[in-house]
From TrEMBL:
<keyword id="KW-0963">Cytoplasm</keyword>
<keyword id="KW-0285">Flavoprotein</keyword>
<comment type="function">
    <text>NAD-binding protein involved in the addition of a carboxymethylaminomethyl (cmnm) group at the wobble position (U34) of certain tRNAs, forming tRNA-cmnm(5)s(2)U34.</text>
</comment>
<dbReference type="InterPro" id="IPR036188">
    <property type="entry name" value="FAD/NAD-bd_sf"/>
</dbReference>
<protein>
    <recommendedName>
        <fullName>Methylenetetrahydrofolate--tRNA-(uracil-5-)-methyltransferase TrmFO</fullName>
        <ecNumber>2.1.1.74</ecNumber>
    </recommendedName>
</protein>
<keyword id="KW-0819">tRNA processing</keyword>
<comment type="similarity">
    <text>Belongs to the MnmG family. TrmFO subfamily.</text>
</comment>
<comment type="function">
    <text>Catalyzes the folate-dependent formation of 5-methyl-uridine at position 54 (M-5-U54) in all tRNAs.</text>
</comment>
<keyword id="KW-0489">Methyltransferase</keyword>
<dbReference type="InterPro" id="IPR020595">
    <property type="entry name" value="MnmG-rel_CS"/>
</dbReference>
<dbReference type="InterPro" id="IPR002218">
    <property type="entry name" value="MnmG-rel"/>
</dbReference>
<keyword id="KW-0808">Transferase</keyword>
<keyword id="KW-0520">NAD</keyword>
<keyword id="KW-0521">NADP</keyword>
<dbReference type="InterPro" id="IPR004417">
    <property type="entry name" value="TrmFO"/>
</dbReference>
<dbReference type="Pfam" id="PF01134">
    <property type="entry name" value="GIDA"/>
</dbReference>
<dbReference type="InterPro" id="IPR040131">
    <property type="entry name" value="MnmG_N"/>
</dbReference>
Amino acid sequence: MSEPLHIIGGGMAGSEAAWAAANLGVPVVLHEMRPQVATFAHRTGDFAEMVCSNSFRSDDHERNAVGLIHWEMRQAGSLVMEMAQRHRLPAGGALAVDRDPFARSVTERLKSHPLISTSYEEITDLPSSGHWIIATGPLTSPALAEAIRAATGAEALAFFDAIAPIVYTESIDMSVAWLQSRYDKGETEDEQKAYINCPMTREQYEAFIDALLAAEKTEFHEGETAAYFDGCLPIEVMAERGRETLRHGPMKPVGLTNAHQPDRKSYAVVQLRRDNKLGTLHNIVGFQTKMKYGAQTSVFKLIPGLENASFARLGGIHRNTFINSPTLLDDRMRLKSRPHLRFAGQITGVEGYVESAAMGLLAGRMAAHQLLGRDLPPPPPQTAMGALVTHITGGAEAKSFQPMNVNFGLFPPIDAKGGRKGRKDRYKAYTDRAKEAFTEWLS
């Protein structure tokens, strides 16, 4: 039995790190400030609570980088992936989950592990000794964030992440809306009808854009800047970039046929994705916003099918904190100036549930190996996890470092001898190469 590994933060990264280390035989103390200290985004004290979308995005492990990281996590015994599969909801080709049962299951599994103990308190300073993983996520408490800044001598960077609004399904007018996944994607009827679609004519779309641009927005606090992560742009910011931007983004009408008027092509379509297993809640896909609550209800009710919508939660934008990892961390995710401290999850500058959990899994395995007297190098850069950790620990340009989702642009290029491969063939070549390399690394 080795000395314990301490993990600060019970989100996706912290939960995955605790599970990975404990399963390698290392005792873990998981420190979580909730529910004693709340955040504006969390509702419970459960570990791995999903506060934004309920989707882990694409599950296609053959031609999608996100699906590939799902595959790698499953091969490595991921708790998050296991519980996501257990509480999976129909979502076309995506991996969406029933968020509350998912978080409860993760919590129960962690608390029942004989080598994991939990401690509910706020950590306000960086520990000077022991072995620690800091996985406090984008909502790191102000006191700990200040301690990190003091220790690194670098200002933490900030961007704004988004919470999509959630609608009560029974309040959606299904005589206007219809069920269909884009391009009928999915192997079962549930998958092929995983989304509710609300169609718009050109006139309705223009009226919606006018209302969106005119709506009252929440002001930024003093000292904040609107350095949005492009994957989470508020809809009003997208609209300000051009009136057609939303129609080519979250409101694109392609791959959809109106079941009520199959011969009429929609000018724009708003999609809602199931948010719980009962199907009583749907979130509006891509509709993060900084509109004030009253304005949100007025603007969203202009969407055909949502005229009488009731909202279980309205949208919001919040400040996320992350460190300049390419400058501060080594390739084992350790703070160079204090190598007994590792960082994992969104605070390192990865973006998304899956990426955060994957970096937690990796940090937990690395820390456990060190405590057991071994050294575990990061996965090869040809793998999804390896490409991501390489990016945040040195592959990115430090001066312009911004949060990043996993994508094939982070991977070493594929040798395309004999002519340029088609996109699908190239993506399959990336995943085939990654699986071989990851399997070898795991062994």
